Amino acid sequence: MPGIYAVSDSAYLFDPVMVPSLNRSIAKVLCELSPAHARAAHPRLNNTITTKHSEEMEVGTAAHATFLRGEKVVELVDVDDWRTKAARETRDAIRAEGRVPLKRENYGAVQSIVERLRQFRDETGAFTDGKPERTIIWQEGIIWCRVKPDWLPNEPSASLWDLKVTDGHATLAAFTRTLYATGGDIQASFYPRGAECVRGEPPDGMKFCVIEAHPPHGIKVFQLTPVALGIADSKVRYAIERWTWAMGSGEWPSYDVAPEWIDPPGWAMREWEGLMLARSTSPRLRWNDEGAQRFIDARQFGG
Q1: Which helix (H) or strand (E) segment is 40 a member of?
Q2: Most buried one in 58, 113, 231, 261, CB count within 10 A?
Q3: For 88-122, how does the pLDDT look when each residue is reduced to its tens digit (9 = 90+)?
Q4: How far apart are CA 139 and CA 126, in angstroms?
Q5: Do 279 and 155 share a domain, yes or no?
């Protein structure tokens, strides 16, 4: 049934809805690849979940659990690295229990990140008067959708919050690249859409709180502009239409096999132009062919 639920991370990843549902990651696959790729990526349609582990991801997971949910899921492993067999076995056993193993350096980093986030919360009022990581399930025509915002405010008209821990810097340029690489633009449209469908009132968009994993743990808050959000909305509509068609027809086509024309990217044109200019001015590299030399002098680099 449509609603807001407390669902574990593992249950959410495998999809707790009665039929395979559309989420942000599958919507991104539909927009960028094809229904066949979406089917292959959906855990309910291929009966698999791919779990990835990296130190950066586990630091982020630990910070989320500690700061947002107040859970003590982090376990310190008193080692500097995972190179020994004993350290790896201890790490894997902790993961199997659903906890997050952290070596000394990363354990200290998580404590510092959480402390800085608590200061940010006290200063701004962000991540208050709401609930962490609630799953929103709703229906769009014949299909079902699900999202899991990091922070769902009690007030339906307030902004949803997403918390990101970055191993780099929380700058506009860096986060913009990350946002579009991970489908964060789709998230900024899809999550408020789900909240409005279930609660009956549109939230004030989504805010991204980005904190640096390393001192001084700088924090920046980002939102999409109306132009960016308009494009994201069109992506979400496209993904919903494609998922509806695929689920309804049972057909999961891959790429269109018709040839596509390739235009030279700007960097390739600049690289070739620079090379030709160097050859035209260097006695060692100058071409002897008269027609080729005229070609260079005229800078006619088209096809």
Answers
A1: helix 35-41
A2: 113
A3: 878 888 887 777 777 778 888 888 999 999 999 99
A4: 29
A5: no
Looking at the structure, do residues 271 and 245 belong to the same domain, yes or no?
no
**CATH number of the domain where residue 38 is located:** 3.90.320.10
In the chain the first and final C-alpha atoms are separated, in Å, by 58
**Residue 242 and residue 273 share a domain:** no
pTM, full prediction: 0.83
Cβ-based neighbours of 26, under 8 Å, separated by 6 or more: 38, 41, 42, 239, 243
What's the pLDDT band for 299 if we cut at 50, 70, 90? low
Distance from C-alpha of 21 to C-alpha of 146, rounded to nearest angstrom: 7
pLDDT tens digits, one per residue of 193-239: 999 999 999 999 999 999 999 999 999 999 999 999 999 999 999 99
C-alpha span between 35 and 103 (Å, rounded)? 40
Question: Do 132 and 227 sit in the same domain of this protein?
Answer: yes
What three-state secondary structure class fits 34?
coil
Q: How far is CA 63 from CA 9, 90, 97, 220, in A?
A: 15, 21, 18, 16
Examine the pLDDT at 23 and tell me if it is beyond 70: yes
What is the distance between the alpha carbons of residues 134 and 296, in angstroms, rounded to a whole number?
62
